[in-house]
Amino acid sequence: MAYRSLSLLTWVITLITILLNLYIYTYPSLDCDHCKWKYTYKDVDSLSSIESKLINIPYIGDLYETYFIKETHRGGHGTPSDIRLLAIGDPQINGNWPSTPYIKRLDNFGNDYYLGHIYRLMKPRLDPTIVVGMGDLFSSQWIGDSEFYNRTKRYMTRLFPRPLQQTYAELEFIADHKDIDWKTHYDWFRNNLEDGFFQKPDYYHYSDIKDWTSANLTNEPLFINITGNHDIGYGDTTYQHMARWRKLFGKDNYWIEYDNDTKHPWRIVVLNGLAVDGPLLQPEFQKYTWQFIEVLKNREYHGSTILLTHIPMYKREGLCVDGPRVDYYNKDNCHEGGEYRIGLLKSENHLQYETSQAILNAVFKDSKSGIILTGHDHEGCENYYNFHERNNNEDEPSGEWIASKDVETGKYIKEVTVRSIMGDYDGSLGLMTGHFNNDSESWEFDYTLCPFIVQHVWWAAQIGILSTILLQSINWLI
Ligand SMILES: *[C@@H]1O[C@H](CO)[C@@H](O)[C@H](O)[C@H]1NC(C)=O
Ligand SMILES: *[C@@H]1O[C@H](CO)[C@@H](O)[C@H](O)[C@H]1NC(C)=O
Ligand SMILES: *[C@@H]1O[C@H](CO)[C@@H](O)[C@H](O)[C@H]1NC(C)=O
Ligand SMILES: *[C@@H]1O[C@H](CO)[C@@H](O)[C@H](O)[C@H]1NC(C)=O
Ligand SMILES: *[C@@H]1O[C@H](CO)[C@@H](O)[C@H](O)[C@H]1NC(C)=O
Description:
One of its GO terms (biological process) is GPI anchor biosynthetic process. By secondary structure, the chain is of the alpha/beta class.
């Protein structure tokens, strides 16, 4: 009797484990509308009639199409390839302290592989051209260099693994485990600011980058990192923060122009949104970031723009979960020893109104299409910034960008606040497709959110595998 119930239990658990694992390895095929690029170019015309019937079956058909039918090209004939950008919202990974209990350590460890599972599954399925970490890669800006390096290593190897040819320089630096040399960085920054170097485009300009390294792995996605408040701080940002960020994650402000000398130019603009409002401990960071915005404003550009920044633009209450809110450090919300922060910017939900207008004007001054991707609020949100012209008789055209759920004017830019990839937000990934419309001769941008599931289901699938092996072994032995 006991044997029969053990056997029954074993098979029930085995079956549940199989179903759970099937789910976690194939979930995008259950939600095809949200987990694919807007356009795919599979060669479905030359399929046999059995295959054609097969691919029309929900789920099974999508799996077959995904894994057995190759994509022949990535854009319409005679038009440029689609831009396929995978956006990762606020992973905010935690670390362990000597006082961290074992159960929390296990949770942190599992969380790395839960997030890593999403990326390892989706990268080959989607084959993105660009992957963007939307900021708040880590959960706190108040960590030492050693912990910053350790989290960076986890980020590069467990969460979003990449070929060693692209990462060895950073990994070697991390392995040395020396404190960051922020004093040299301080001198470099101050000298360049004084010399006016940041007022010129040279420092910010890139073109047609496919790989940051000389490995030239053009089939791998290009990784772009956005500064978040938990990576470098808000008003409390120091040279130490910036030195280690720049060393391991690159510049905080720059652009990459693609296909400039064609009929379909487009660019990516990366902006450090933490250093545009203030007051800052190091006001020179703000000065430098505004010089970047000024350079952008003065740059002649006639293509479409994808703006990537962590903090969303200003919008009225009610459009997203987060309304406008700004906090400054005061004597009640400062830790002891942190009194030097009093008066500085502590946090904000949106960039300030004037700041947002200035950025939108600088980046989207042309009437070309564009899109803004941000992170920060975790819930996710989509809006349109409509440009309302003002009728005045001056030569300078002037107007105001106003956020709304709808397109209301001829000139508008969509803003997407990417939902967080954290388990509590269902392990979501943002998929942005840029497609060149040959008739209107302009880039069209589309965004969809692909949710996975809370982390507990992923855990259950792992525990299920262990239990199944254990129970099946016992059953086999007795
Ligand atoms: C796109 O437009 C160009 C010229 O504007 C033309 O040569 C090309 O054939 C068009 N491609 C498609 C797919 O319509
Ligand atoms: C980071 O990792 C190294 C090597 O594993 C270790 O020696 C060091 O203590 C870690 N740093 C922290 C702050 O835990
Ligand atoms: C990188 O590889 C591409 C082909 O994949 C090639 O066209 C290009 O010239 C290479 N660039 C460099 C700098 O080697
Ligand atoms: C972005 O971060 C990764 C580490 O995850 C690094 O390898 C890569 O070089 C960074 N990008 C830039 C432009 O520095
Ligand atoms: C980009 O293209 C435009 C127009 O074709 C040209 O005026 C400009 O100099 C180019 N910019 C760069 C950096 O090549």
